[in-house]
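Re-run requested by the PI after the first attempt was lost when the workstation crashed. Everything re-entered from the original request form. Ligand of interest: 4'-deoxy-4'-aminopyridoxal-5'-phosphate.
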Amino acid sequence: MSEDAAQYAVTPVTDPDAPLDVAAIRAQFPILERQVHGKPLVYFDTAASAQRPRAVIEAVSGFYETKNANIHRGVHLLSQEATDAYEGARTRIAKFINAPSRDELVFTRGTTESINLVAQAYLRPKLGPGDEIVVSRMEHHSNIVPWQMLCEQTGATLKVIPITDTGELDLDALDDLLTPNVKLLGIVHVSNALGTVNPVAEICALARERGIPVLVDGAQAAPHQRVDVQAIGCDFYCFSAHKMYGPTGIGALWAPMATLEAMEPYQGGGEMIRKVSFEGTEYAPPPGKFEAGTPNIAGAVGFGAAVDWLEGLGLDRVAAYEARLLAAGTEKLLTVPGLRIVGTAKRKAGVISFTLDGIHPHDIGTIIDHYGVAIRTGHHCAMPAIAHFNLPATARASLGVYNTVEEFDVLVDALNGVREMFG
Ligand code: PMP
C-alpha cells in the first residue's frame, strides 16, 4: 500500500474478518457532506461513476502540486519522479488484478477504449467473411458497437447469446454458438443494467477448450470483488478507474505478453516507438506500443491511489458488505407497491434495476432527486438487455461501499412519495 493509502486506510487489511467501518469510509468522501435540493445526498449511481475518496483526490492534486512533468525520457528530476509515479501505478494496478507481469497492463481511457483497442489491434487483422464474434444480450454498448463496426469493416458476423427472464446467460445457447467460426467471445463480468454476475471462469474454460479467445468486460466487477485474471483464464480483461473510486479518463487493458507482442499497434505517435525513420519505424515493446502520445499521467496516479485504497479496505470485505447491502436493499424496495425488479439472477452484484407500475422511470428519477436521491434512469447503455424485458427504460439504484441500509429507507420513502404523486 502507498503512503497515501496507508494514511486513509480504515481498518488494517491484516484482519480480513473485521466488518467495514462504513461511517469511517463515508467520512473520507467529501462529496457525501453536500446537500442536494436541501437534503443530504444519497448517492445510488456508483455503476455510472463512483465518488472519490480523499486519498484519490489528494493523490491527483499532490501529483500536480509536487511532481508534474511529462514522463519517460526526461533527464530532469521532476520527469523522473512523474515517470516513477506513473509506472508505479501500473505495477500496483497489475498486481491488483493478479497480472503475471506489470508490462501486460496497458493504460487506456477506460473500458470502452480497451475494447476498441482489442477490436482494431488484435482482431481486425485476423478477421474476414465467414468469421464470427460472439457477445451476449446483456452487454454494455461498449462491448457491442466496436464489434459491429469491426464486422462492417471485415465482413464478419456478430452472434448473440440470449438471456433468460431472470437476466442470466442462456448457457446452452452459448455452448451451441461457440463453433469453429468464432474468433472471439466478448462477455461482461457483471452486468451494469441487471447486476448479474456471470460465471466468467467457466465460460473461459469452455471457450479455451475450443481455442476461442475471450475478452471480459470487467468495468462493474473490478470495484466490487477480487479480480484475478489468471484464475478467470481470460485473454483480455478491461476496466475503468472511475468505477473504482478513481479518476475519469483512465482505465486499463490486461492481456498476456505473447498476445500483446503479436498485436498491431492501436495508434501511432510519440511514446509508442523505439526508432523512427522514413525508411521504417520500430515499435516499442508492450505496454508502450499501445500508449501513443502523452498519457493521462495524473489519472494513472489517481488510479493507483484508488486500487491502494480498495486494497486497504480489502476486496473480500467490500464484496461481503455490498452483498449484505444488496439483500437488505432489495427487501426494502420490494415493500413499495407496484415495484418490480428487473434482473433477478442468483448471483448478483450491487445493481438494482426496477420499474414502478404505470410511472415512467425518468419521472421517478426526477422526482426522487428532490429527496436528495441520485439514481440513474434509462437504458443504461444496454438497450438490448432492457429491450429483452419489453421495456424502454428502468430506474437503477447502484451501490458503492459508502452506501448504507438507512439510505435505502430514504429511497423507499422517496419512491412512496412518487407513488402518492401519481395517485
Ligand atoms: N461496460 C460496463 C459493464 C459498464 O458499466 C461501463 C460503464 N457504464 C462500460 C463498459 C464502459 O465504461 P467506460 O465508459 O468507463 O469506458
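Saved to the shared folder this time. Residues 63-311 form a domain with the Aspartate Aminotransferase; domain 2 fold (CATH 3.40.640.10).
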